[in-house]
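Hi R.,

Here's the input for the 3-phosphoglyceric acid complex you asked about:
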Amino acid sequence: RTIESLGSLRSRTVIVRCDLNVPLADGVITDDGRIRASLTTIRELRDAGARVVLISHLGRPKGEPEARFSLRPVAARMAELLEVPVNFVAQTVGADADAAITGLADGDIVLLENLRFNAGETSKDEAERLAFAKQLATHADAFVSDGFGVVHRRQASVTELAAVLPSAAGRLVAAELEVLERLTARAERPYTVVLGGSKVSDKLGVISHLLERVDTLLIGGGMLFTFLAAQGHSVASSLLEKDQLDTVRGYLAEAERRGVRIVLPTDVIVAAAFAADAAHETVSAHAIGESSFGEAGIGLDIGPDSAAEFARVINESATVFWNGPMGVFEMEAFAGGTRTVAQALTDTDGFTVVGGGDSAAAVRALGFADTDFGHISTGGGASLEFLEGKQLPGLEVLA
Ligand code: 3PG
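And here is the predicted structure with 3-phosphoglyceric acid in place:
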């Protein structure tokens, strides 16, 4: 259901679930991509004369207030971007929140404090979630679900709230779905998926699902070392998930059976320590233990030959989905692989999608613009689960 299904919104109080979970360093927002992505829906509701109540989580507080997870800086940034006041209430439910909501005039916007300061939001007990959702819904006439990054979560503000109010998907959720459906239902071939990030175990579902759909999988990031180890290579002190070795061997065998190419790096950058200024050198991916650092060596990025090969494959692809950095891009010495892959995505004529909060923050931190890519998804876990073919609870309730 889209916003149109809610009818006229003039003078109606509309509660909007956004994903304003932005990275912060010492209280300063380091990437405002998710705030920007939420603006289309908010502007539209405001223009329609709605009284807009914004709700979101930030980080993973454990059901009680923690100052470092406050949404206050987000309200300030949003007001700057919208160029209208965004009133912040340091409470999610209660007398202050009630007063702020009932005091709204048409077109006014209020942002409530972090949903996860309340145990009911993430409770495993459905009755508790429902009770919290009902509290949230007290003064609202309608609910718009626009936090794409959380639609894979069964949480009060995502699932139960949609059940207690007339509800609809917001513009961001609709736009994300359109792109991801294009990837699952009608991806143009050759279809290449670039996977990085640290853990294989986070990507298990998506890898096995992708083996049925893609032509090529390019593997970088910390998880590549478990792939190399599964092929029998020594990885010295690089990240290794020993308990995933059999699973990875299974993937390699299945890929071969299906004719899917899994491309692993042929060279890697190995460092003496996990530090921005650590001594480092480029070695063969099959001889990591033979670097000058011996068994202490840690692989922190794919090497230049591998990055060039990844770029070549990306350039020949009609569709590319990328999730997860290729190396420790926050440290300049180990950002080369991620930068080359990002550059290749911007150069190719194919349709490119960057999935995930972290990958999106990585490309912006490296100086790329959102418009350089076909689409930058605001959802990491959500976009992966969608590609896995899972039913997402936050979407099911809007169907
Ligand atoms: C994300 O960062 O992927 C979303 O905001 C969801 O956050 P969560 O993984 O803490 O539920």
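One thing worth noting: The two ends are 6 Å apart (CA to CA).

Cheers,
M.
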